[in-house]
Amino acid sequence: MVLESGKCSWGSCVFCGWGKKATDTKGLEQLKQEFDSKLGRAIKAEIPKRIKLFTSGSMLDEQQYPTEFVSYVVSELDKTGIAEFVLETNVLDISQEKLDSLNKHKGKLKILFGIGLEVADDDVLKKLGKQSTVQNFTDKAELIKQNGFGIRAYVLVNPPFCEPASCLDKTMEFALECCEEIVMINTYPHRDAPLFDLWVQGKWRPADQAEFDKLTSKWLKHKQVETDFANYKFVPKFPRRLMTKIIGANHDCLVHPYYQVWQDFLQRFYEPRPEKNILLFIPCAFRKPYKKSRTHRAIFRAIKDLQSYKQIHPIVVSSPGVIPVEFQSYYPFANYDWPEWEETAETKQEYTSVNKERVKLFLKKHASHYKQIFVYFKHTSETRQAIIAALDELGLEYNECLSKQGWETIKDEKNPIIHETALAELRDCLAKAQ
Ligand code: SF4
Questions:
Q1: Cα of 57 to ligand 1 centre, how many Å?
Q2: Average pLDDT score, the chain
Q3: Is the pTM for the entire model greater than 0.85?
């Protein structure tokens, strides 16, 4: 159950975007109404064993959730016959007085506090911007235990400012001593969190599934331990303050850090949609997003009534690197220009070699997803050279949808890639795709 009200009073943790999100603070009656309706839906089919309540900060912070509301929640849950309740709170908001109040209303309900321990190291906690210390956690854990409650601790896997394996080992050893349940959560660069900047600056990067599994596997033998790799629908979403238009045909624009984080995401986290199993490499366009350009409109008009159209996955390759078209409107893919007239022989060479590597890394991860690969480019294009070199080096089969012969007949036209001869070849080529 998610019940937001107000903003985390601390809001300064480096890794947390939720705590910076401002939502309206709700009054007692509104909170009760929302809770009743969510509870009604949660128990409609059957009574669940457990309810977890996620908040926009800390449920025991009276500025966000009045004490009367918290008492109401626990007594209502107890009445329904639900056995267990996990409520999220800042460890510093736990006090004897609040535990007494919960004990008065909870009946038979077992209550666990969902608490962000993150890491059991004060230096790292300080750098992470946490308000609490390891000692705070130890003290409150003792109080919680004495009062008959439990702890469900959230531990960060791969946080910045520490060596991931030793940091996790130290934290898990600590947590196993004082927590009933421990969730190892992957650390992600939330849009509004300073951690996003660390990723962009190349000072930290999120752990992918294989890295996460390697770090966490040794702890899974403990029955109170679980993992949460995909707690966040991860796509690089840039905060507004970082958004600028990237213009230029030079080294800095080619390997811009914003492009590098996207390529990192595409190479290690991205999963193409299952039905999109025919890969079509296509050129970029000056107008953004690409779908508004003459080039893309003509290409898509030419292929949209093909039987295989729904399976075709168009992927642009351009100065930002590999760009699956579903991301064309994401920043910075609609906010860059690579003015070709500024290119030098050296830039062209670097462009080809950088993009060959990007395409290779993308294909190493994703080639097995695609049944067929198609390439549709001008024969003079550096991007084509980069893609074909990557495919050849990986030994992957592909079809080129604009033949050498066809190219020779149209190469002097104004925009040859959307010449009817070229588009007819593209259609015929993709019509054979299965
Ligand atoms: S981790 Fe918790 S305390 Fe820190 S900013 Fe986020 S919601 Fe607030």
A1: 6
A2: 96
A3: yes
Cα-to-centroid distance, 12 and ligand 1 (Å): 7
Quick: pLDDT tens for 206-227: 999 999 999 999 999 999 999 9
List the CATH code of the domain at 2-228: 3.20.20.70
How far does Cα 340 stand from its chain's mean position? 33
Mutate to test the pocket of ligand 1, among 55, 59, 90, 132 (most ligand atoms within 8 A of CB): 90
Closest CA to 239 of 130, 128, 332: 332
Kindly list the protein residues whose Cβ atom lies closer than 6 A to any atom of ligand 1. 8, 10-11, 13, 16, 18-19, 57, 90, 116
CATH of domain 240-431: 3.40.50.10630
pLDDT in tens, 79-91: 999 999 999 999 9
Convert the pLDDT of each residue in 116-144 to its tens digit.
999 999 999 999 999 999 999 999 999 99
Q: Where exactly are the structural domains of the chain?
A: 2-228, 240-431
The answer to whether residues 390 and 363 touch, using CB atoms and an 8 Å cutoff, is yes
Ligand 1 atom closest to the Cα of residue 20 is: 5
Using DSSP's 3-state secondary structure scheme, residue 42 falls into helix
Q: Which atom of ligand 1 is nearest to the CA of 9?
A: 8
Q: Order across the sheet with 110-118: list the strands.
A: 2-3, 50-55, 84-88, 110-118, 150-157, 181-186, 225-228
User: Where residue 420 falls among pLDDT bands split at 50, 70, 90?
Assistant: very high
CA-15 nearest atom, ligand 1: 1
